Amino acid sequence: MHADRAGVDRLWRAVIGCAFRVMNELGAGFAEKMCENTLEHDLRKAGLAVFQHQAISAHYGDVVIGE
Fold first, then answer.
1. pLDDT digit of tens for each residue in the chain (67 aa)?
2. Which of 8, 55, 60, 65 is 20 to 30 A distant from 17 in Cα terms?
3. pTM
């Protein structure tokens, strides 16, 4: 299956635009989580579906090493 090139381009422009807006507005020195929350807010305002840090289980053999 081939990706919709125009759709992918629109998505990248929206994501990069939001990232630059957040960077320009907040500047340097903010905690990563604050930047992440601000970027999520801008991406949602742009009409994108956003999910932060979804929980997953990590296994090493039959042992759960993280969740």
1. 567 888 899 999 999 999 999 999 998 888 888 999 999 999 999 999 998 888 888 999 999 998 8
2. 55
3. 0.70
